[in-house]
Amino acid sequence: MNTSILKRNAITLSALHKGITNDERKFIDAEKKYYKIVISLKKKREELGFTQEKLSLLSNIPRTTITKVESGSRNATLHTLISMAQAMGKNIEFSLY
User: Fold this and answer.
1) 48 neighbors 59 (Cβ within 8 angstroms)
2) Angle separating helix axes 52-59 and 78-87, nearest 10 degrees
3) CA separation (Å) from 51 to 3, 14, 65, 66?
4) Block means of pLDDT (10 residues each) for the chain, length 97 residues?
C-alpha cells in the first residue's frame, strides 16, 4: 500500500484512546490480563514439551477445551485455568486490589 495513503488514513494512539470510556478501559484491561494468563499457560506447555493431548490427560480436561482456551475461542473458568497450571506443576496467583 502507498505510504502516503497510510499516513492520510492513520490516527494516533492518543486519538484512538480519547474515545474510550472508563468502563471500556476496564474491560480492555481485564481482557489483556486474561490473554496474558492464557499465553503464559500455552508457552509453559510448549516449554515442557507437552502436547495438548498430554496436558489433557494430566489435567482431566478435554483436549478440545484446551485448544479452544489457547486459541481464545473460549473463555475458560478459573477451575479450568487452575487445572491446566497444576497439571504442569505450576500455580496461578490471583489478587484482589
Assistant:
1) no
2) 110
3) 43, 41, 13, 10
4) 81 80 90 90 96 98 96 89 95 79
